[in-house]
Specification:
Length: about 300
């Protein structure tokens, strides 16, 4: 049956992840590095160091090793999903437009809902389906002026893969709420680190770029992952994926405020539709009584 209500703490943590991730575009504008694989490598290094440092400080070296051991196949799956999504995003940019990638990512809540039903028979409420449809419509309006040009099967396929990987990571984390997934996302950064190292043309960066890459990796990527894997255990997978669509809506706002790149009218209209749908859905869900879940907040 459809779940009744959601945990407000989980909803805020997932929204916090989307908000943190949404600064990625504004941060990337400060980088002078042109090799995407170099960016992937150093961003992943900073993210991995940040996550490992946090776990070492909280759990100690032995405790951290036990967390990696105990995450099991579910944790490995989550790590591979995040690594797949991150890598596919960079490659997809070479074959298709950002607009098409964003449009595909808007389908993540739909994929998460379908996966939860097909794999675990967890039904999604009608109000969630309505919100998913509204969010997809809003994202379509946002990117409608950029949905032109030739079709790239590889680029569009990779964009679809991003949404599927993110949805699967959401489902795995939700269904294994008893597993602490911090090591899993750390594993994901280690995988992308190795991939970036193999394909990077050069690992040299300036001091200014090194500082921005630290912000890009430690704060933008790793902190967002920490919020997400903690919060997604407390809310239905479809709702978590739905809340995360705030990322492409907030992203243009920060680029506008920081770099003065004024978004076009369709971006503002589509973003308003998405935000309105998310707020209405969350208000509806928070009004409903929820079934208590014995899930620890600490990850």
């Amino acid at each position: 049956m459809a779940s009744a209500g959601i945990d407000a703490r989980g909803a805020w943590l997932v929204f916090g992840a989307a908000a943190v991730w949404s600064f990625g575009g504004a941060i990337a504008r400060f980088l002078s590095v042109t090799d995407s694989w170099t960016i992937i490598f150093w961003r992943s290094v900073c993210a991995a160091v940040f996550l490992l440092g946090f776990m070492f400080q909280r759990d100690g070296i032995r405790g951290t090793a036990m967390l990696f051991r105990d995450m099991g196949w579910a944790g490995i799956g989550v790590g591979m999903c995040f690594a797949t999504a991150s890598t596919a995003f960079i490659i997809a940019l070479s074959y298709t437009t950002v607009a098409k990638i964003l449009l595909m990512q808007a389908g993540a809540p739909l994929f998460a809902a379908l996966l939860m039903f097909l794999l675990f028979r967890e039904r999604v409420g009608a109000n969630t389906w309505v919100a998913i449809a509204a969010v997809m419509a809003g994202i379509t309006v946002m990117v409608s002026d950029s949905l032109v040009g030739t079709v790239s099967p590889l680029g569009d396929g990779l964009a679809l893969l991003i949404a599927l990987a993110f949805a699967l990571a959401t489902v795995l984390t939700r269904r294994n709420a008893h597993v602490r997934m911090m090591p899993a996302v750390c594993l994901g950064t280690l995988i992308t680190l190795l991939i970036g190292f193999v394909f990077a043309g050069s690992l040299r960066v300036s001091a200014a770029d090194a500082a921005w890459l630290f912000v890009f990796g430690a704060l933008n990527l790793a902190l967002g992952m920490m919020f997400f894997v903690t919060g997604v255990r407390l809310v239905p997978a479809a709702v978590a994926a739905l809340i995360s669509t705030a990322e492409p809506v907030l992203g243009p706002v920060w680029v506008w405020l920081v770099h003065g790149e004024v978004p076009v009218g369709r971006t503002l209209v589509g973003g308003a539709i998405v935000i309105a749908a998310l707020l209405a859905h969350l208000a509806w869900q928070l009004r409903e009584p929820r079934q208590p879940r014995n899930v620890p907040m600490a990850d």
